[in-house]
Each structure stands twice: as structure tokens, then as C-alpha cells.
Records
---
Amino acid sequence: MQKKLFLGYKLRRLREQRALTQAALAKQLELSPSYLNQIENNQRPLTLPVLLRIASIFEIDLATFVEDEEARLVSDLREALADPLFTGGAPGTAELRNATAASPELARRALVLHHAYQKLQERVQSLAETLSSHERGQALAGPQFPYEEVRDYFHYSNNYVGPLDEAAERLSEQEGFRPADMQVDLMRHLKDRHDVRVKIIADHDGESAMRIYDKTSGTLYLSALLSGPSRAFHLAHQIALLGQSDAIEQLIAQANFTTEDAKSICRVGLANYFAGALVMPYRAFATQARAVRHDIEQLQSRFGVSFEQVCHRLSTLQRPGARGVPFYFVRVDMAGNITKRHSATRFHFARFGGACPLWNVHEAFAQPGKILVQLARMPDNVAYICVARSVTKRAGAYLKPTRQFAIGLGCEAAYASEVVYSAGLDTSNADAAVPIGVSCRICERADCQQRAFPPIGSHLTVNEHHRSFVPYLFTQAGEETGGAGAPNGVVEGVGG
């Protein structure tokens, strides 16, 4: 049985953008005004004939229109509502889906409010710690909320920025950039089109920077420590800042960021996006990716780019009408902090706290340079092929610490035939997948032996006569608590 499509909010938004009345649109769709009103209020699903007429009238990509973009919004809202701030049982998945489908903008604003609350709580805690220790300084400085705002911008754009992606591809074709000579071609373009010279400089007297642009002299300085792929990326980044400034500023204006810091961060992010699209043009890269079944190492050699650059680019191949395999991309440091995350999939990342310890991205540090493959299953029962590998960024001196990260890339197991990393995996066997979650604070898996702490809102009882292999045994809010000695009412978390 096929899933019914309730997309009333999207249709209403399209109609309002075109300044059409319900009666006018109903006439074009060959429907009665009352029937259209029911569709817009999600009282009736969209049928295939109506969908086809919508696509024709509004000249939109049908795949983009029917995409389940509410899934990630539901996940984010579910995590936010797990906060102890909200008493009582958490809303069910069906209720959350109904709410986000009816008013996704209201759901996003609720998330903004919760972000603000989180930041305020952290600042209050910092203040309390400062007062208790009689210290001053930077304790009041909480986490940078603008970074989260920019992350959400790319997150809800499916990590695809059409105007910049298309502009990068046009420029690459016009200039005839060659992967084998990308650095030379980019430097030539900077000199011919922007009168910018490039100089490679060494680290002197502790002064280190990957890229410095001197507008007065028209000189771009690049660090000698940068690898070839990194140099090409920074050259392309500078081309974005010089040649695509109007397009970038327009995108920033449309995003409606709340702070100047967020605008500045997004400006860098958009320039980075253009840079990746310039050295790996969409159609050429997508064609090669399909040909080698998304083999990251082969794509590295064919485009002269790094492992991380390939993974990030794969997560952006979501051009309407020419979509690639939907991938998630993540970069994690050795402490488990997610420093980069983008997703075109339903894979959910933790917005607060650490990621699941069973996810293979953490294991990558134990086997440096080796590509690890994991078949994993999220609590929503969607299985993923997860690829992970550590990367090392050299510091250039013995006494400077080397930076290490783990890169994660993954797609739904439904795309196994299109991904080389599915070799040897039994994607048809549900028991073969490792059960992972978003984070312990919201994960409902009751049998996880790696759980760091019980989920928020669960009910715990202590039973000194029972010890389980599972660190925390609990019942969810609203469920019956087990009696003495019953496994579902025991908390374990202390002792060896």
C-alpha cells in the first residue's frame, strides 16, 4: 500500500507565492474550491493527476515537491521536546508529523526558541560557576549560537545551494579547468580575471595562516604546509569571494540570519561550497561517482582532491532533476565533537551532546587511515551503509600538535547497489545491522550495553539485588514500572 501524500502546506505556500486565490488555483487544477481547501488543510491527500497538474502549472520538479523534508524537522523537534523543561509524556511521532506538516515554519521557530533557551541556561550556569569561584574572564561566553544557525541553514537546504553550484559549473566549463592541472588553472584565472598573484609562504616566528589575501597589493598568500588539494581549494575559495560576492550576499540576505556573526560565518561557508563545486563540477563529478559506484579513493585520484573533499561533495549532489545518491557527511574530533555535519538523508545527528558510541565513526581513530564500513540501523528502522576513516592534518613542526579527525559518509541501505561499500554486506538481513541511535539522551533502545546514561524522561528504580549487562534499565514515561527485581525497573550505572 502506497503512502498517502498530505502536502497541503507546500501547495498553499506555492499558491500564496504566486498571489493566486483558492478559486483561481482550483480552476487551473480542474478542482472545486472546496476540494482544494480540503487538500490545503491536509484533509485529503494529493492524487497523481493533481500532482502532475501542479508540476505543470508551477513548473517545479515533482521529486522536490513530494520530498519528505519534514522528517528531519520532526527529528529535531522530537529531540528538543525531550528536554526536562517539558513535563509529561513527549508527543508521539504521528502528532509531531501532523504538527510539522501543518505548519513547518512554526516548528522551526519553536526550535529557535529552544536554542535560545539552551544558550541562556548555559550562560546562567557559567555565571553561577563564576560567582561561586570568584573568577572573572570568559566564563560568561557561551557556545557560539551563530554556528548552529548556519548549520541549520545548510541542513534544511539539503546541503545544496543551486545558484553557487550552477555558477561554479559554468565557470569551470568556460575556463576549461583541468583536474590534473587545477592549481595552475586557478592561479591563471586569478591573475587574468582578478589581477591577483599567488605566493607560497612558510611559517615564520609562529605566524601561521592557511590563506591571507592582501587586497592592497593584490596578493594571495598560501601556506607551504597545505597539500595540493588544499591549495586548490583555497584558490577556488578566493575566486568565490572575488567573483561571486553578489550571489553570496543575495543568499545571505534571503536566509534572514539574526546576527552579523552568523552572516559572516555563512559567507565563509558559501565560499567553501563554491570552491568544492568548482574543483568538482556537478555533472562531471556526478557522472564519475556513478561510474565508480561512489568509490571515494577513485574519485580522489580522478579529481585530485582529498578524502574529506570528496565526501563533502558527495553529500551535495541534490540538484533538482539530476539528484545523486543522498549521503550524509560528518566530521568528528577525537573527543567526539561533531565539527561538521551535512545530510541529504533521513539520518539524524545529535544537536546536543555526543553521538552514539556504536557508530563506526568513533572506531576510525583506532585504525588510522583504514576505511571502515558498517551496516547500521536507526531507531526509525531505516538501515544505513556507514563509511568512516580517520584523516590527519599535519602541523608542520614537532612541537605543534597534529590535528586528527574522523570522516563519516553514509547512505540508506536501499541504495546498496549503487555504492561499492555494500560489498559483503547482507542488507536484506535486519539482524545484521548494528542498532545505533542519535544520542543517549533521546535514544529509546532499552537493551543497549553502551548506553552512557538513561534517556531524558524515563523512570528509574534502584534494585541492589539485580545487576544487568545493560548499564541502565528503565521505563519510558507513561509505561508501567516493573516490580522489585523486574529488569525494566532497574538502573545500573555505578561500579565495575
---
Amino acid sequence: MKRYISLFVLAATTLFLSCAEDKGNYDYKSINELTIKGIPEDTTVMHAEVLKIQPVLDRLLEDTEEGLEYSWTMAGKEIATTRDLNYEVPFDWDVKKYDCMYTVTDTKNGMKYFQKFNLSVVAAFSWGYYFLCEEADGTSVLSYFSTKEGTKECLHTTQVGSYVFGKRPKTIVESFGNIKALNDYYYTMYIVNGESEQQVIITNNGSFMPSGLITNESLMAAEEDGFEPESGLAMASGQVCLVSNGKFYSYSNGLVYRPAKHDKEYYWSHPASYNAYVYVWDELSKKFYVLKNQINDPAAGLVNDQYAWDRVVEIEDQPSYDGHAIITHAVPKVSGPGPHVMYLVTEKAGEISFMKFEYINSQKATEELPALNEYGRFVEGKSFQVPGVDKNIKGVIAEKNWYVVVGNKIYASPTLMPVLQEFTNLPDDIGMPMSVALSSKGTHLIVATYDENSAEEYKGSFALVNVTTGETVVHRNVMGKCVVAKGCDANPWF
């Protein structure tokens, strides 16, 4: 037993001495790690545009880029090996969103550092402001002003792809949502013209190529009066409706459904909606009504048809509109079962009137309650005398405020308890207001003007007015006579 203990002590002593004599013959070196910053997560670029990205490279130890190699890849294909990207996007790139990667390799230690980002390739007409204009001979021209920094002039076109707009521009009906073919969110635009081989050309601000046409051949049944759409709207559901010759139509999957059927004679115009109900003006009775789909009540011979706006709901207690000109109206975004409100602005004899309506659809018909528990009513109205007011004034609603343009003055009023006050002035040398719209996020008014006495080639201008501060930026003489303006300058949802 004593022998075994001695051997153990000897082995332990040897091990201790061995460890004590180890001078640390190990070379532990800190890695000069790298962090990539300054690359936006999402970037949008047009065909033929030079994409410029200048990353910020931070080192942990030494601020040096010696021994670094770089690689830029888009959809798995390397397009550059430079530190900064300076790349002209070719025309043959498909319009869509690409997965991209910036890779930095430290050749001294083999370490690689990655930064992913998304690149959306769009057409020349993409994110910006759209103006449907009319030339002296009636020709329809679409003018576009990009939101890209440094833009000074509009782009102009009389067609989308090979399809020509024609003459007598009417309106643009726009909706926002995901476009599967482009794998991203864009505005779909229905460009409506009065004299054209194709009354409506459908496109989007991603590809700006024709994605559909609406013509007489699109009608499910021929119309004696023909098909001449003048106005329309796109609902939150995505359904698109058009008004032609006083008749109300829905459009879906390339077809125009039969016009709405009603017991009385109506001549519809000025549709406004957000969700499942449409406020619409009848030129014959000079009243507003609500249109909706018919209830499903087989016993009464009523069958629901999602494409037919066959039910007319009276709006009670409406005032007289004798002598009134409809300036603008809108249905704000709504959610839940509460009232669906419409705000209306009219002009009469130098007065601006603000009116409010509501429609409530509380329950569907049952055997016990065969009649719908619903009603539409006029809520309130208030008028203001304003110098210079006539039927040519323009207006728009932004969030909970009305903005009305009278000459070069912009007035504002809350929708609740209207009180009209001067908001800001436009320059007095840009002509008369033609159309007013909102930027996508509702932060700016887009006021299109026209000066028929201008000596410039383009007599039309537009102003961007901040709705919070009143700060105004004017772009002079960049387009023709605007019929309708649209703000498609950003994703309104994010």
C-alpha cells in the first residue's frame, strides 16, 4: 500500500511541475470584427437608374479596410465587386422585388460579413404624383412627377404599352394592394377616357404596363346607350365600380356586370364609398341615396348577388340642393358596425356648405323581422360666406379636416363642428386650381393649377402643401390642364 501512495505523489508532483513550467505558448489574438451599416432594408429603383449605395463599415479594433474584398449580389447573381455600389439597372430586369446581399470578406483571416437587403425594380412611372391632363384638342395625357430627390420635370405619356388613351380624359380610379405578379404592394390604376378604343386602361405604378382593358366587349350584356364610364371607385374590399350614362356597374375578373336594377328611374353620379355601401347622387331627384347588394330573402323573391347593386336606401331629412354645385365628397375609413358617414361640400351663391350624412345597417332581415333595421339620414350642415367662391372651387378631406381651395387661398375646417378658417396662400402666379388630391399618407395636399395666359409650353403647375405646417413647394409649368390628380407617392399602409 505504501508503494502505491508514493507512485501517486510522484505522478502528481510531476504534473504540477509540468504545468508550472508552461510559459503560455499560445497566441490568442482578437479578431478585428466588422459591422456593416448604412444599407437600407428596402430600396426602390427604376429601369436605367443608377443605384448608389455607400455602406458604412465599422471595425472593432483598427479602423482600416486593408485586405477587404467586396461582393454585391442580386437574386444570387454578382453584379459588382466594389466597396460602394454604383450600378445602372438594365432595362431587361423584370419589375419585381429582388433579394440582395452585400458581402465583405477579410482576406487576412477568412472571415465573411453579410448584409441582406431588398431591391424593388419599378418602371419609369412608379412612386410619385399622377396628373390626368387634357390638351387643347382634347387629347388625354398622363403626367407623372417622381418623388425621387432632385426631380424637376414631369414625364408625359399618351399611352400605356401600345394602348393609347384617346381623348376627353375623365378620371383615375385607384386601389392599393398586393400585386401577385410583382410580388409586392403597388397602386392599381384604372385610367378612364371618354373617346377611346378602350374606355378604361388598367395599369399599376410598379410595371406601368397594361394589365387589363375595359371596353364595350367587357360587358356581360350589350347596352343600348353604350358603355361610356365617367366616374368610379374602388372599395376596401377591392371591388371596382363604374358609372356610365347614369347606370351603376361593378367590374370583376375582366367583366363588367349588368347595371344595377331599380324599381324607379334614377340617373347616378358622384359615387363615394369605403366599405360595402355606396353613397350616390341622383341627377333626376337631386338627392343622395345609398346603394348596396340586395338582401338574401328567397321567400320574398330576393336573392343576394355580390356583383349587383340593386338595393336603394332612402336618406331621410335631406335639405334642398336647388342651386348647389357639388364640390367634393368623401367617405372616411370606417371599421365595425357603426355609422358609415359621408361628408359633402357644395357651393351656392358664394357660400360654401359642409354637410354630413350617415347610413346604419344594424341587422339583416329575419323571419321575425322581415324588414331591415337600417336607415340613412342627413345629420347636419353649416354654410360659410367666402369671397371669391364659385362652382370652380376645389376641395378634399384629409383625416378629420376639409381643405378648400378658392383662387390662391386654402381654407381648412374640421369635419366635426365645421369652422372655416384661412390655412395658407398659394403663389398668385400659378393660375387657378384644377384638382386637389392627397399624398398617399395624407401628409400633403396636391393642388394642380392652370394659367391659360402663361407663355410657357406647359401652363399647368402643382403645389405640395404640408397639412400640418402649411409649408408649400411649387413646381411651375410642368404639365398641361389637369382633370384629376392622384397621390401615389408611398405605401399608405406601412
